[in-house]
Amino acid sequence: LTLSLAAVWPATDTPLRHTRPRARVWSLVIPDPVLESRFTAAAFRSAYTPLVIFLAAWTAIHLILAAVYPAVRDTGVLTALAGAALAVARWRANRMADQQRARKLFGAALVVMHASAWAALLLIFRVHPPEPRYCSS
Question: What is the pTM of this model?
Fold first, then answer.
């Protein structure tokens, strides 16, 4: 079975209208490396606006939570800063000429951000383990 990528993604359309690029349906492998490069670059570029809007909303919500609830002030501000840092990293990646390299760099930034957040959370729980609270009724 094959799937015509041009029907789903306009960036994969070839100049020759009678030949359409094909991908394997079950594995989603694009056999042509040039076509795969164009496809992933177009997909990465088209995801820019929704991701930046999401990260901006994420940052605003966590800043509001930090301002309203003092108990979550530190984590709210740190989470908002992480969202803003990812938005800036994505903005910088979108401006790069080589979108394949930009995709890899942004992926690395995303992995580093998540790994550092988990490491910080584990360190906090190691230093200050959560204690059960008993309510008297």
Answer: 0.66
For the record, the structure tokens of 44 come out as 């990465």
The rounded distance, in Å, linking the Cα atoms of 21 and 36 is 10
Length of the chain: 137
pLDDT digits (tens, 9 = 90+) for 22-76: 666 677 677 788 888 888 888 888 999 999 999 999 999 999 999 998 888 888 8
Burial class (CB within 10 angstroms; exposed 0-12, middle 13-18, buried 19+) of 32: middle
Q: What is the DSSP string of 30-83?
A: -S-HHHHHHHHHHHHHHTHHHHHHHHHHHHHHHHHHHHH-GGGHHHHHHHHHHH
Q: Are 48 and 90 in contact (CB under 8 A)?
A: yes
> Rounded to whole angstroms, how far apart are CA atoms 53 and 37?
25
Q: What is the C-alpha to C-alpha distance for residues 94 and 106, in angstroms, rounded to an integer? A: 10
Per-residue exposure over 101-135, b if at least 16 CB sit within 10 Å of its own CB, e if not: ebbeebeebeeeeeeeeeeeeeeeeeeeeeeeeee
d(CA 36, CA 29): 9
